[in-house]
Design brief:
alpha+beta; globular; four-stranded antiparallel sheet; 102 residues
Length: 102
Amino acid sequence: MSARIAKDALMTAWVHGSGRIEFRPGVGFPDGMLPLCCGTRDAIRTALKARAWNGQYYAVPGITDRLSDQQAYECLEKLRVSLTGISPELISYYSAMNRRDV
């Protein structure tokens, strides 16, 4: 079971179609992006630093302009699965959505 994260500290990592990852407060659903994970800013940054930092910004490894949507989604899912269980302050987007009103 993951740790309880204060509602005002909860961030979501979102992925653009280009593969670039950004963080936003809360668990809303911005247009044109897919959720990667939720947690505290520090937990997300720490988890992504070794897996998705390209030297300039966070990006899903393997996503290029030449990939089909299905291939890009598979890269996103591979990254999402690799983040599972890394930190009690890192939770799935879907778990965060289930408790956002609690």
